[in-house]
Design a protein that fits this description.
single chain, about 500 residues, alpha/beta, Leucine Aminopeptidase, subunit E, domain 1, Aminopeptidase, 7-stranded mixed beta sheet, 21 strands, elongated, binds ligand BES, binds zinc ion
Length: about 500
């Protein structure tokens, strides 16, 4: 995919589809929200779109034949609603994303873009995210896909737009990488493959990579990662990605659940939709994407990414309900349900991450079905041991355009993870299952260490129809939130 900005006029730009924005006008009419067209050209487009019912509402796409004098093969007239009044960037991203999806078989798309740098970033990001497709495993069936996106801006804005574009490309590449990892079939992405993918993602960037194999995990006492992985023929791994630019004062650790396939283990899951559990490494994919973007953007903050990864399989060597395991920090855990495995691998990684005493630790995990019950498929649940940090992460998510909502960790739930045998059990009160999972994770955070937990069970994988810039399957959830948090902390 090539993404560029140009200052050619819309009519002279050769492309398969030229995207021109419109908005509702006075009464039932529509108005142009695009520069660079002559009055006559604009009117012709408005008349043609109007004639086939265009209203200008956000996300509405009306494809019309290219008028004489246009080098484009067709014109895609895109409604952006009241964006010019409200300036809701997420609404713009969503509209552009829908357009890019609808035009995904057009090889070259040109978009007439407002020169405001924020609009350029939003447009370039959403166009790349919307034209995403996952074709690596298509054998005989090959589809045409968008391979070039051009943003048309007025000449005076060209240089500034190029800078804005560069940021958008870094973000989009990171989100799309994260989507690819989630979409990759589980037989092609075992823990060792995920570790290799993490290494590849930051190749050539100032990021140091350390990978723990089984032997190293045993040496260091990572009992959670080992227990979850012991039923699989594909051994577990732990990956550490360190970005530490000279002179950076702030520090952040991001941790992502990396279960490459979650059968539930001996507490096996029902067959229906189990294939979606290839996406149980969505948190890890977010960490990997974010580390790449943060390093490419050169943010002035030390960021350490942690990816504990295992395959949760039932077998003769799998852990049993009732087993007691010892985590990295010495906590003993009675495993009452082997399907509550994410918290076990996270416990080890969190235990390691806090040793560096970063300003903030954030984990992202497809942790509980209860998250989807509580907040639905699109909104992440944000829990924390510190109100300010939780607010900071929610604000960053909002700014990045990712739906997230603060959730409590009620103290009374702590008793529900008591175990008669070990220090704690790995399941607690199922009423508020997202919260009791958070309460479990909190056990591995020492007093005084700020920590935020994001449950992305719903948002990380879209099992329904695509919408806006979000495709079916892996969504790349939390990459942009992580990057925004890093950038917020770097600026403080
Ligand atoms: N990976 C699942 C959670 C999940 C469910 C993610 C649906 C995405 C979609 C997790 O490991 C799990 O199975 N959690 C159990 C916990 C329970 C046993 C306490 C759950 O939510 O049922
Ligand atoms: Zn599970
Ligand atoms: Zn899981």
């Amino acid at each position: 995919m090539t993404v560029t900005v140009a200052a050619t006029t819309p009519s002279s730009t050769a492309c398969d589809a030229l995207v021109v924005a419109i908005m509702p006008g006075k009464g039932k009419s529509i108005a142009l929200a695009a520069h660079g067209l002559t009055t006559a050209q604009g009117n012709r487009i408005l008349e043609a779109a109007s004639a086939v019912g265009a209203t200008g509402k956000s996300g509405e796409l009306t494809v019309i034949p290219s008028p004489n004098g246009f080098a484009a093969k067709k014109i895609a007239v895109l409604g952006i609603g009241d964006f010019m009044k409200q300036a809701d960037l997420e609404e713009l991203r969503s509209a552009i994303g829908s357009a890019a999806r609808a035009l995904s078989t057009s090889r070259k798309i040109a978009l007439v873009t407002s020169p405001d740098p924020d609009h350029v970033i939003a447009t370039a990001l959403a166009a790349q995210l919307g034209s995403y497709s996952f074709t690596a495993f298509k054998g005989k069936v090959k589809q045409k896909a968008t391979s070039a996106i051009v943003l048309l801006v007025p000449k005076p804005a060209l240089d500034e737009s190029k800078k804005a574009l560069a940021t958008a490309v870094v973000l989009a590449d990171a989100v799309n990488l994260s989507r690819d990892l989630v979409n990759t079939p589980p037989n092609a992405l075992a823990p060792a493959d995920l570790a290799a993918a993490a290494e590849r993602a930051v190749e050539g960037l100032p990021v140091e990579v350390t990978i723990w194999d089984e032997e190293a995990l045993r040496r260091d006492g990572c009992g959670g990662i080992l227990a979850v992985g012991q039923g699989s023929a594909n051994p577990p791994r732990l990956v550490k990605l360190e970005y530490a630019p000279a002179g950076a004062e702030a520090s952040l650790a991001i941790v992502g659940k990396g279960i490459t396939f979650d059968t539930g283990g001996i507490s096996i899951k029902p067959a229906a939709n189990m294939d979606e559990m290839k996406g149980d490494m969505g948190g890890a994919a977010a960490v990997i994407g974010a580390m790449q973007a943060i390093a490419k953007l050169g943010l002035n903050i030390k960021v350490t990414g942690w990816v504990p990864t295992a395959e949760n399989m039932p077998s003769g060597t799998a852990q049993r309900p009732g087993d007691v395991i010892t985590m990295f920090d010495g906590t003993t855990v009675e495993v009452l349900n082997t399907d509550a495995e994410g918290r076990l691998v996270l416990a080890d990684a969190l235990g390691m991450a806090v040793l560096d005493k970063p300003d903030l630790v954030i984990d992202a995990a497809t942790l509980t079905g209860a998250q989807r019950v509580a907040l639905g498929s699109r909104t992440a649940g944000v829990m924390a041991n510190d109100d300010n940090s939780r607010a900071l992460v929610c604000a960053a998510a909002e700014q990045a355009g990712e739906a997230a909502w603060p959730m409590p960790l009620p103290e009374y739930l702590r008793a529900s993870i008591d175990s008669p045998t070990a220090d704690i059990a790995n399941i607690g009160d199922p009423r508020g299952g997202m919260l009791s999972a958070g309460i479990f994770l909190r056990e591995f955070i020492p007093a005084g260490q700020a920590w935020v937990h994001i449950d992305i069970a719903g948002p990380s994988f879209n099992d329904k129809a695509p919408y806006g810039y979000t495709p079916k399957g892996g969504t790349g959830s939390t990459v942009r939130t992580f990057v925004q948090v890093a950038s917020t902390l770097a600026a403080e």
